Amino acid sequence: MAGNKTIAIKNGYVFDPLNEIDGELMDIFVKDGKVVRELSSAEMKNAKTIDAKGMTVMPGGVDSHSHIAGAKVNGGRMMRPEDSYKWNRKKTPFTHSGTGYTVPSVYLEGYQYSQMGYTTVFEAAVPPLEARHTHEEMRSIPMIDTGGYLVLGNNWFLMRYLRDGEIERAANYVAWMMRTHKTYGIKCVNPAGVENWGWAENIGALDEANIHFGVTPREMIHGLCEINELLGLPMSMHLHCNNLGQPGCFEITKDSLEIPSQIKTKQNLDVEWAETKVDSKRKQSVYLTHAQFNSFGGTSWGDFESGTKAIIDHVNQTDYIVMDSGCVPFGEATVMTGDGPAIHNLYKLTGNKWSNTDVEMECGSGILPFTYLKSNPIHSVQWAMGLEILLLVKDVWKSIMTTDHPNGGTFLKYPNILAWLMSQEAREATFNECHQWARDRSDLGTVDREMSLYDIAVLTRANPARTVGISHRKGSLGIGADGDVTIYNMDPTNLDTRDYENLVSNFSQAEYTIKDGGIVSRKGEIVAIPQKRTYYADVTVNEQGEKDMLADVKEWFKYYTVGFAHYPTPDSYLMNPTPIKINAEG
Amino acid sequence: MEEVTLTPKGEIDIMVEAEVITPDTFATKSANEIENLVVWQGSHELPLSGFFDVKGKGGSSAKETSIVIEGDVTRVKRIGEGMTGGSIVINGSAGMHTGSGMNGGEIVVNGNADAWAGMEMKGGFLHITGDAGDHAGCAYRGSWHGMTGGKLVIDGSALSQVGGGMSGGVIEVAGSVQNFCGIRQNSGLIIVKGDAVRTVGAEMSGGTIVVVGTITNFLPGFEYTDTESDLTFDDIVCQGEFKKFAGDHAIVTQTKGALYVSKNANEDL
Question: pTM, whole model, 2 decimals?
């Protein structure tokens, strides 16, 4: 790819968990955009050299769950002029102007992620019919590589195939859909429930059959996890459970997580793997998202409490689950999800402005502005819950730090979350500012764990990359990995975690963000606009199987408002389309 | 107290965004430094001296700084935005967003003010001796939380959306208003001495609105509760008999909103 650079990063303290490098003083070399063992003296002459003495060096940040592009993100922008009015950035000779705090414009998203040291971000929910729109936005997000997860938990074809036990036809359909919409993995939102929402109903139990299709959440979760491993996709099935956001929902979450316990993980990528010391193939067969929103305890808002313990215990005792936190860092948010009924519940609670969409044969969505207040007892418990999920899961390789941007809060608050994870003093300071329920109704107050920079590198680099199956090129500084590097101006040998404000400011503004071997951001200033890639899963399946499946799909396609020929997303909608080859036959 | 005088240099075509014209920004600055403050005109950043002659200097703080603008600035936006103290006197008409989000001090517009005067103001005193445009003392588009404090006095009339989303403070209009006065108001006080056309207090959930004149089209979501005479709100007195209504029940399930209208001027109610 044009613009790939050669660079030497010298004397930094390197944190590269996939290579078990924990703050070792060493040099990192990138040649033509890829990490190499060393540079020859001739190559060194032409290389850019950075002296990272006294600084922290990590692989570029990877966000495995964020809402940055597509119909509902744009819906949020349209609904919220007040979100843009007070948050804007002027253009520079390199960069566009932009606006928006919780729902930033595409350019701002790229610049702001890059400033914090991120180089790869995945859009968490792409309704198939909105794939074109999503790609149109993703290709305009500068600085970061992107990909999107396809929303399939209430898809008419899959509900029918899974109800009828036609697992192979369902798998062929998913493989075709990934290629057709140039998407990366399977997302399952309120399985079987969003379909009921089309009839103003929801679903409350795993074995409740939905309207017309008669399929249960259990069948959808099991079916999609099974398909995922039949195909050998990069990421495991990505699950947003039923009853999300309702007191007591931890129970259905725990039961949902049991469903794939016997499904064997099989990731079957036909790619070049960067050298890593730790096996960088994913271990999990289910990836639970925004666990905080799925772990509400109590039976009402009156006796609301953290319900994370049951989920965390289950994750601690097993080895097939990874979850991201969906932290709530307080402040402005815009809640947006494919879970239409969950947003309707919030509308009834708050009376805020609300938008709802039905995506004909596929899914739905809802959007609502929301403010998390320290004075609010529920919000304060939610703040504690997000941190519990990250601090009480013993093996850091089972969790990922997110805010489910912009649902729990904007990604701009990641630095605050990292500070809370690293500093008990930071947590105490917030406990003292927020509602007493945070202490009384969660276990966070009893936690004295303070995460290391190595843990942070797992939570924000190595593990998101491995969990979503992009670790063959991202999330490590192994030989052959993409030359994406973050340098923070923090000396790990002399780091005072009591000074948490300093942590926040350092994580907010990387000293250097390097993408494909080129410096793209320097102390918060964008200095170059790199090329970017869009990843998608390119699954090869049995030809006859695909033909049979397509004959059936075409027959049912008459119920769509679009013609079959207009359904696929062409390559031209993607910036540097980068298929990840998967051989389902293998 | 130091005084800075700004004299407009002539006609302005594309509107100028001049949120730098506040006692806060001018404080401690010399005339030359003030001349070099940057304002946007369209996509260009230009020095304030491109539009104004500057005389005088800033005081030691915002409170110690007063600004006098000698002339018409209808094409200059955001004068006094977010100011916390001191004073601005505009001897002429003012542009959009005058006193937006102001938090303290005083602005006097000796003329008319264009739309969004006192938008989301938090404190201080904004006095418009002429008429105001739309959205006076209102929340920004999309926001449901407008003015939270301070006082906005309009000696003339105002157009639509006065006090939209109001959460605190006082608005007093000596003349009349158009539509949607006090829409989504949840606290605070709006007094209209003249008439209103329609949708007064639409979706209001708290706070008080007084219309001393006639409301042409009264909303159906309000319920008559009482009749009161000679209303007094601190230093503001509204004489005569008033019908008191609670609302807006049409949209809001629980509302503490109170709407007073003149009994004599609204005989059909």
Answer: 0.95
